[in-house]
Amino acid sequence: MASKKTFIPTPEQLMLSEARKAKKLREANTLLSANLKPDLPAQIISRPWISLESQQELDIKLQRVKIMTWNLLAQCLVRRELFPTSNCLKAGQREGMLHAEILAQEPDIICLQEVDRLERLLPVLEKAGYQSCFASGRGKKHGCLITFKEALYSVVEEQVIYYDDEDVRDHGSEKSRRGSSFYTKNIGFLIALKSKHDTHQGVIIATTHLFWHPKYTYERSRQAGILVREVVKFRAQLGLLEWPILIAGDFNFPPEDPGYSLLVGDPLLAAQAEQVLRSQVIHVSIDPTVPATTPVSVDDEGGEAEAVDPDRVIVNARPSTDEDGLLSIQEILDLFPAESKVRSVYDAGLSKCKYSQIPSYGNRVLLPSGRRGFHEPEYTSYTHYWKSVLDYIFVLDPVDRSSKVTSLLSPHNVDDIRAGLPQKGVCGSDHVSLAADLVWATQTATTPL
Predict the structure, then answer these.
(1) Is the pTM of this model over 0.85?
(2) Which residues form the Endonuclease/exonuclease/phosphatase domain (predicted)?
């Protein structure tokens, strides 16, 4: 029998084999970096849920919704000078923590703001069983995303609200009908979700990211009024008046702000009215003839990119005149009718909380007696330069059904975030996520919030 010849590859075959091995290694590394082959989960601080109702006492037939809201801090907005104490500003450092925190709470519905890098986020959500809908302001690099468990809901309808294009009057010139002081590119995003388990049930979801500049109180109040008006109209036009409305997002105002009081139905105080009037200016984005007091370089948030001073003042604007058509105080009040007053889920829920050791906003900031907002979380945004409550979950119940908050995701302990967010092992955003469990029944079967 002839002996077998030993195979000796040629130099060309050796090179081809090594090239194939290198290609496989590159492909494996690409899959790993894309999180398609998950590594160890990113570390974040775990936050317990606060139970407000005995689960045994809750009727299993009640409509239930577990909702979460969070401003992710868009990577396109990250600048070192804004977050000098943060140790995780690169996308690769933050994304794992963001994904881990979103999925950890297993919400039915999630409202996210400042969402970019969709190519990284959407596969994570899809793998976890979520269907997503995204919208952004014209020309913006980030936007709002509503995502929901595909096994629970289907989309009936969705709508984007471009605040810059919305009228607040039905008469006068276009400028007067708009009543706008600043072209901000902010939006509201609405979606009607029908239950797959009971097609007679569903929920209307609205999320938003209102204008960020602290001094533009008037414009933010205008945007908040438009949001509530449009979501109520959206529900009515779809013939879904028996469905509850949940409004969750980054409103960029604290509980003592006129915008908050207008939303929840507190009377506008004299000092708040004065705050609105002082902010009634016309920005150069509305009137190009306004002399620029600082070099105009508009960032993706619609404001001057140079305005990094924590005390931020109004620049590149002039006082408004009657011809500009800004709303009077009475017209602003009329934009928030009594039947559209919302209630804050955290303010209502934490007011009943037995865990008195949880600090609230009212423990930190003196609010006038009897005003809503005392029981909001102590902070929902905490960085080196600004520390405030800006994020909320609001509910607007249908006429014949009232809601009850059964549990809340506890706020962060301030000692854990004192270094300033975002921080490795703590939180990947400069905002704190909020989440709540709610149930609805007929008005006679349960008490209001």
Answers:
(1) yes
(2) 68-431
Q: How far apart (Å, rounded) are the C-alpha atoms in residues 212 and 252? A: 6
Structural domain spans, the chain: 41-442
Dist CA 360 CA 314 (whole Å): 30
Strand 109-115 and strand 63-71: the pairing is parallel
Confidence grade of residue 308 (pLDDT, cut at 50, 70, 90): very low
pLDDT given at position 293? 83
- In this structure, what are the phi and psi dihedrals at residue 200, rounded to the nearest 5 degrees? -85, -10
- Number of helices and strands (H, E) in the chain? 11, 17
CATH class of 41-442: alpha beta
3-state per-residue secondary structure call for 379-445: CCEECCCCEECCEEEEEECCCCEEEEEEEEECCCCHHHHCCCCCECCCECCCECCEEEEEEEEECCC
pLDDT value for 27? 54
pLDDT for the residue 21: 57
Reduced to 3 states, what is the DSSP secondary structure of residue 263? helix
Quick one: pLDDT band at residue 131, thresholds 50, 70, 90?
very high
